[in-house]
Structure formats: C-alpha cells, structure tokens
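To illustrate the input format used throughout this study, we show a single complete record. The first block contains the structure-token representation of the backbone; no residue identities are included at this stage. The design step must infer an amino acid for every position from geometry alone.
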C-alpha cells in the first residue's frame, strides 16, 4: 500500500451556527493549480482532476481535527461530511458533533483561531516538471483521499514519499535523490533526465520529440477528467 501523505493550505475556515448541534464547519482542504511552499527541493501543485476518482468511487473519507483519530468530526459514510470539487479546489463541509472535539473546534473557529486546512492522501499518479522559474515541480494527478481536517499546525509533514516518487520517475535510488534534495540539486537530476525540459534553445526537431513525450501525460490527465 502506498504511504500516506499530508498537505496543508493557509485558507480561512468558516463556521455557521445551526439550530441543532454545535454547528457546521466549511473550508478548502486543497486548492488547485497553486504552488506549495518549498517542500525540500521541490514544490507541488494539485491538478483539478486529482480527487475525481476518489469522489466518483465513493471512497470513505473522514474529517478529524489535526488528523487525530480520537478527534473525529464527521464521515462521508454517515453523511456528516460532504465533499465538493469546484473551480477553486476541494471544499469540505462537516456537521460538528456534540462531543468535546466538536465543541472545541466550534470555539476555535468562532474565535478565528482556525485558518488552515489539510488533506491526507495516497498518491495514485503524479508528474514531475519545472515551474516557469525552472524549480522542480511535482503535480498530483490522481490521489486516494483519506482525510480532510482543520488544523492548528500549518507545517508540512515529512515529504520523503514525494522524493521517493521522484526517484521512481528518474529510475534512481532514493538515497541519491535525498542527497540531491539536501544539496538543493533536484533540478540537476531532472535536467539530466529531460534535457531542455524548460525551453533552453533546443532545435525544433528536439522540441517535437519532447512534445511527443508529453502526450502520454496529457492523455492520462484527460482520462482522469472524464471519470
């Protein structure tokens, strides 16, 4: 089984009171096509099709405060958690339970203390390229969604799994990729794998070859969008 990864975004969490229960919490667990912070030699973005398969397959997803098992807020199975994909990203809405966790989250949200959300996932498909500035870029094309959560700690967790994906992409050992990341030299590895990947004056014939190499990834993204 693929390893679990966590990603956080800085975006306000909204709360509204209801006649029954502590209230409803809404937020975005992920935003599409926005570069993350530096994750240790690379940045990351989420493709708009990344969650399509999970949602269409009805994969069970839970909402937990700070991703803690004992701080359960809602589940898609019980329909106390709903998920929606829109033009911005993955939006979640959870009916807070009348539990200690639910009441604590309500108080924190009402005071404005919750300004970050997060999602936990396992990568099904990703792609590696460069930002316009030439920095290594990982794009999440398809993921198995596990968890969405309001969080108090916006720090990114261990990104070793992302580096392992890059190692597989480059057909290199993970230790070599980790060493390159520590030296901020991931770009060199990608340059060696895909010379001229960011348009450095290659002849037209070579650019055509590179374009043909991109076609399988484009087809993969179209297949995911059509699910």
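Output of the design step:
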């Amino acid at each position: 089984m693929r390893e679990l990864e966590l990603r956080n975004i800085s975006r306000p969490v909204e709360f509204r009171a209801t006649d029954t229960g502590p209230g409803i919490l809404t937020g975005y667990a992920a935003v599409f096509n926005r570069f993350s912070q530096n994750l240790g030699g690379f940045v990351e973005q989420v493709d708009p099709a990344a969650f399509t398969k999970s949602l269409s397959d009805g994969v069970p997803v839970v909402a937990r405060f700070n991703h803690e098992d004992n701080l359960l807020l809602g589940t898609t199975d019980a329909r106390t958690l709903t998920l929606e994909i829109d033009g911005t990203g993955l939006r979640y809405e959870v009916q807070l339970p009348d539990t200690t966790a639910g009441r604590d989250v309500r108080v924190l949200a009402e005071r404005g203390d919750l300004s970050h959300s997060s999602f936990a996932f396992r990568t099904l498909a990703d792609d590696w390229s460069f930002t316009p500035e030439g920095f290594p870029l990982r794009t999440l094309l398809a993921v198995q969604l596990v968890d969405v959560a309001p969080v108090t700690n916006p720090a990114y967790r261990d990104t070793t799994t992302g580096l392992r994906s890059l190692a597989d992409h480059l057909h290199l050992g993970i230790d070599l990729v980790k060493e390159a990341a520590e030296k901020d030299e991931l770009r060199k590895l990608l340059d060696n794998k895909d010379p001229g990947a960011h348009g450095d004056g290659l002849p037209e014939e070579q650019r055509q070859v590179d374009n043909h190499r991109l076609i399988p990834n484009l087809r993969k993204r179209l297949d995911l969008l059509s699910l």
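Structural context for interpreting the output: The chain is about 30% helix and 30% strand. Strands lie at 5-10, 14-16, 23-31, 43-46, 62-64, 72-75, 81-85, 89-96, 116-130, 136-151.
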